[in-house]
Design brief:
disordered N terminus, 4-stranded mixed sheet, 23% strand, single chain, 5-stranded mixed sheet
Length: 264
């Protein structure tokens, strides 16, 4: 029997559109998102008892939806969605709970139309890369992608789902990473302060560095990423600039990891 190896699932064009949308929605971006979703191969977490051929990266192809139990995600406003991922790397970021290890099947967005039509389905749409991008695709838009409806005259732009996000002090302090970030900030003239917080989304945790700098160039954030990510022990790392909203809702009264005003 021939052992066919499928390439890993990647959707760079869809991810680019998602990142563009997060900077601000326009009708053109929404239409581009719809077009990319028509082509995208998405990973869907699920469970099943029947046997399918499984690839090394955990994906399953050509699975019948009637034989599969698909996972659902509940947001903190009581809504329910089918989670989908643009890559196996993004799928690994989602923690479904202790001792829960879902399999991943490859689906297209239009394939979910039949699931939304089921009378016992509570899901209101898809959520792309939950825990990271949290982009909601309403089932009305899925029906349009599947060719079941015409494009609506007005479309509510896909938006981040209101997952329960908390910013807390790290439960285990990453000393090596913090020291590397301190040294990098100390040698970067533009950086004035750096704060370290832990971001918790559901059961998923990540580190987030907040940078106050005289420059808002992306290279400043990249300087911090360069030393933080290799020392994060595979925990996701975010680096953002400080602004009024970030200081109020994330930093709050935390003590800065690096304070350029102190001469030590």
């Amino acid at each position: 029997m021939t052992n066919t190896k499928f390439p890993p699932i990647q959707n760079p064009e869809l991810e680019k559109v998602i990142n563009d949308l997060k900077q601000g929605s326009t009708p053109e971006k929404q239409e581009q998102l719809s077009e990319e979703l028509k082509k995208a191969q998405l990973l869907s977490p699920c469970d099943f008892d029947v046997q399918f051929q499984q690839e090394q990266n955990g994906t399953i192809q050509n699975a019948n939806p009637s034989q599969i139990k698909f996972f659902l995600v509940n947001t903190n406003d009581g809504k329910t969605f089918f989670p989908v991922f643009t890559s196996i790397e993004n799928a690994k970021l989602m923690n479904f709970g202790k001792n829960v290890h879902p399999k991943q099947v490859v689906r297209h967005a239009k394939d979910y139309e039949v699931l939304f039509e089921a009378p016992n389905t509570k899901a209101e749409g898809l959520i792309i890369n939950p825990g990271k991008d949290n982009i909601v695709i309403p089932k009305m838009m899925v029906a349009h992608i599947a060719g079941k409806t015409a494009a609506p005259k007005t479309v509510t732009p896909p938006s981040p789902a209101p997952l329960n996000v908390q910013y807390v002090e790290p439960t285990v302090y990453p000393t090596k990473m913090a020291m590397a970030v301190y040294d990098r900030a100390d040698e970067t003239e533009e950086i004035k302060h750096v704060w370290l917080k832990q971001k918790v989304v559901g059961n998923q945790g990540s580190f987030i560095f907040v940078v106050e700098s005289t420059s808002k160039e992306e290279r400043i954030l990249n300087l911090i990423r360069e030393v933080a990510v290799p020392n994060a022990k595979n925990v996701p790392v975010e680096v953002i600039f400080a602004d009024e909203n970030v200081m109020k809702n994330i930093v709050k009264d935390s003590t800065a990891l690096y304070d350029g005003d102190l001469d030590l």
